[in-house]
Amino acid sequence: MTAWRFPAEWESQSAVLLAWPHAGTDWAERLGQVEATYVALVSAIARFESAIVCVADASVHLRARAQLERAGVPAGRVRFVEIEYDDTWLRDSGPITLVDDAGAFRLLDFRFTGWGGKYAASRDDALVEGLTARGVFRNGSPEAIDFALEGGGIETDGAGTLLTTWRCLSERHPGLARAEIEVVLMRSLRQGRVLWLDHGYLEGDDTDAHIDTLARFAGPDAIVFQACDDPADPHFAELGAMADDIAALRTRDGAPYRLFPLPWAQPIVDDGRRLAASYANFLIVDGAVLMPAYGDAADAGAAVVLAQAFPDREIVSVPCRALIWQNGSLHCVTMQLPRGVV
């Protein structure tokens, strides 16, 4: 029997999958600003590995290619794929990949419901099937799973431990008990156990507390998490309770995790709406960690913490203030693909 495994993000990668924003998406009002972020993001990815950029049509393709060429991104590092999509949050609509020791891949295609029916999502839900039909995946076979789950809602250490939040999974499946959800997660993702966080949220996050905005593995024995050190901030009590949840977690060997609390950015408000500026929404690529930066004094401190958590990787800051206007950040718009799958 094939021993499938859900690899950690820090394992070797083929490419990072993204979708270019365009005037037919929710980015239309601030398209120029968010495109500048995408140029910076693809430029950073291309320093270390390839980027696969979904484009909605030929005109979006030409626009994206021209901007990346002007920025000096090597053409050989970027592959464009024309395909329709509702939005650009590919962490949640892209494939979740399992690997085996023989070099085969299984592309898990969970149901994407627009974060519990908040937004239209039919084209995003068909994305994995569409990319497969276009020959993007060389060694991967898709597997549709009739269970609502987003990639941003789960985090793995690559050795059989899954980290997630009860707030998100209970919102997606209000009729299921925790033990029932655990059975589905462990069976479909080949996990030996599930660690739950019962606290943690960010204002301006419409994912119902995705784990990738709150806490991330930095190795089998380490967790990086978003802290809040401002007692006057409305997040203080909840993120403090989340920190207690994390401190109580244990590795498979029964030891406490090494913990790396990230600094707290000052509130970023847009038209009276608080935006979710989380430093936990970083992306690990081959040789580097791409860190969201928000033009805040805490950016520098976040880079220091990530350098401590990932001492063998370069920390690269990517300006992401434009992304949080639409309630997500750097990790949310990307999906890494393991080495050999494309």
From TrEMBL:
One of its GO terms (biological process) is putrescine biosynthetic process. One of its GO terms (molecular function) is agmatine deiminase activity. Keywords: Hydrolase. This is Agmatine/peptidylarginine deiminase. It comes from Chiayiivirga flava.
